[in-house]
Amino acid sequence: MTIEFCAINKPEDWMEMVAEQFGTSVTDNGFSVPPSVGSGFFKQYYPLPWLTLTYISFVAYEPMTMIRRSVENSKWIPVMFYINEHKHEQIIGTSTKTVGIDTLDGIFMPSSSIPTEWSFPPKRRYENITLTFNKDWLRKMDMAHESYIGRLLHSDKAFYLFETITPAMQQILDGIKSIAEGDALFSALHLHGKAIELLTMFLEKLEKRSEVKSLSNLNLNDVEAVFRVRRRILQSLGNVPSIPELASEANMSSSKLQKCFKQVIGKAIAEYALSEKMEWAKRLLSTRLYSVSEVGYKVGYANLSHFTEAFHKYHRIKPKQFLDSL
Fold first, then answer.
1. DSSP secondary-structure letter at 54?
2. Where would I find the HTH araC/xylS-type domain in this sequence (predicted)?
3. What pLDDT digit, counting tens, does each position of 127-138 carry?
4. CA distances to 166, 190, 199, 203, 216 from 193, in Å
5. How would you list the strands of the sheet with 2-6, edge to edge?
6. pTM listed for this prediction
7. Contact in structure between 66 and 117 (CB atoms under 8 Å)
8. Pairing label, strands 76-82, 2-6
9. pLDDT tens digit string along 150-207?
10. Whole-angstrom distance, CA of residue 91 vs CA of residue 94
11. Positive or negative CA dihedral for 14, 17, 22, 24?
12. Total Cβ atoms within 10 A of residue 138
């Protein structure tokens, strides 16, 4: 089954568009997945005129693909939080990535001009919470154009951003699920507060990108090149290639690659490689199959004290203490 949609003038129209392809209709700002297709629901809430909260939870009996077609100049910007336990594939052009709640790409915010699609395996629950805001509202909030998001939206350049779901965000997302699935008094008011809090947390996290002084006008080739570089880093964590080597593979200058990588992934290349290396080290230690020195060597450290220092700085615990705590 394939569901196609695009950014539209009103979030309500999106729900109608998707419901029709499921062979059903919208009632009370949502719809249930027909039993012939699967189980679950799509639901939208409207905390404010410029903000929509969408909660999706469904299981499909057959493989499903959802395709987001590109359009130009949509005023609505989605911030998608992948909260499903099972990972699924997200595809941009010829690049495929695996995303889920515990990946470094648990959140993504695309402009309307870059298409993407998602593939869901059958009989596995997919859950997503999306905040969709009107960029004209945010532009008014940032009259001086000083914030990162303000500069991004005022530039009118194509973008595709990824972020990580923090523990604090996870608590809010769990709260939204609990409220939406219940029938408590003042639930709409509670969802209003949770949606505002979640959006604020996301924008504050995004602001950490503010050291990117100029914004690249990303096209699909740029995004695919960033993903190729990301994949190469993940394949070579024990000996990460130099930035000139990665730039050559991406067919970009070193400066352009670093700017595009930071804009898409949200971290500088060196910072991203270190974070993945430290997460890998933690996973290796968690198996209890390796000593601290063996893990340090596997992730590329010839000097044990350098590995210990890097692990402690990233995880706030020394690797030996972490191993002993298991």
1. E
2. 227-325
3. 999 999 998 887
4. 18, 5, 10, 16, 34
5. 2-6, 64-69, 116-120, 88-92, 95-99
6. 0.70
7. yes
8. unpaired
9. 888 877 777 878 887 887 888 899 999 998 887 777 788 888 999 999 999 999 888 8
10. 7
11. positive
12. 19
**Interatomic CA distance for residues 179 and 190, integer angstroms:** 7
pLDDT of residue 176: 92
- The one-letter amino acid code at 151 reads R
The secondary structure element, H or E, covering residue 70 is: none
Q: Tokens for 322?
A: 């972490």
Tokens of 279: 């997460």
Q: What is the mean pLDDT of the chain?
A: 85
Which amino acid type is present at position 7? A
Non-local CB neighbours of 297 within 8 Å, separated by 6+ positions: none
Q: Which of 269, 189, 188, 183 has the alpha carbon at shortest distance from 225?
A: 269
Residue type, position 36, single letter? S
